[in-house]
Design a protein that fits this description.
- With 189 residues, the chain is an alpha/beta fold.
- The protein has a single domain (2-184), classed as Pyruvate-ferredoxin Oxidoreductase, domain 3.
- It is built from eight helices and six strands; from the N terminus they run βαβββαβααβαααα.
- The chain has helices spanning 13-27, 74-79, 100-103, 113-117, 128-134, 141-150, 157-167, 170-184, and strands spanning 2-8, 30-37, 45-53, 66-71, 84-93, 123-126.
- It has a six-stranded mixed beta sheet with strand order 2-3-1-4-5-6.
- A hairpin with a 7-residue loop joins strand 2 (30-37) and strand 3 (45-53).
- Helix 5 packs across helix 6 (141-150) and helix 6 (141-150) crosses helix 8.
- The chain is globular and about 50 Å long.
- The two termini are 22 Å apart.
């Protein structure tokens, strides 16, 4: 199974991919992970490859081999379409970080859904920011999205919660478990 997480710096992509890796290792899979950071500061492109199965040789997902793309920002989704295999699932956080050309008014923010539909119709929009803000935890978007992702994967909810408890500081565990559960309850259409 090949899961690609993509977004921009500061969204918690690395932590989310670390948690996915931990869950899958505890579930019994061989797991390989690789991440690529764009600019070291907030706003730069970030992606993380997570691959797991009985035996994984390389941490990098080959083009046209990604089973699930979890995108933390809408436009970043389009950047990684070459990785998608036919009929891949694409989970998109409905969050837009406008690039300079949009901010300056020289371009409109593109509608990415038609572009993605050229590769797959299995597109799932999640308003992770609204869920996290409603809970009073705006930085918890990554855990909300991880909750949604978890509904497409084998491990039971309890294993995910166990890993959240293992990986997060005690002060923030309960709010992140709540966010994870809310992400699992998202009505995906």
């Amino acid at each position: 199974m090949n899961v690609l997480m993509a977004g921009v710096g500061g969204q918690g992509i690395i932590l989310a991919s670390d948690m996915l890796s931990e869950v899958m290792m505890r579930y019994g899979f061989d797991v390989k992970k690789s991440e690529i950071h764009g600019m070291a500061q907030r706003g730069g492109s970030v992606m993380s490859h997570v691959r797991y199965s009985g035996n994984v040789a390389s941490p990098l997902i080959p083009f046209r081999s990604c089973d699930i793309l979890l995108s933390f920002e809408e436009l970043e989704t389009a950047r990684y379409l070459a990785y998608l295999k036919e009929d891949a699932r694409v989970i998109i956080n409905s969050y837009r970080l406008s690039p300079p050309s949009v901010i300056s008014g020289s371009r409109d923010y593109p509608d990415i859904i038609p572009i993605i539909r050229e590769r797959t119709d299995r597109i799932y929009m999640v308003d992770g920011h609204a869920i996290a803000e409603e809970m009073g935890n705006p930085r918890g978007v990554n855990i909300v999205l991880l909750g949604t992702l978890s509904t497409f994967l084998e491990p039971e909810e309890g294993l995910w919660v166990e890993c959240i408890n293992f990986m997060l500081n005690e002060k923030i565990r309960s709010m992140n478990i709540e966010g994870f559960m809310k992400g699992r309850q998202v009505n995906i259409q």
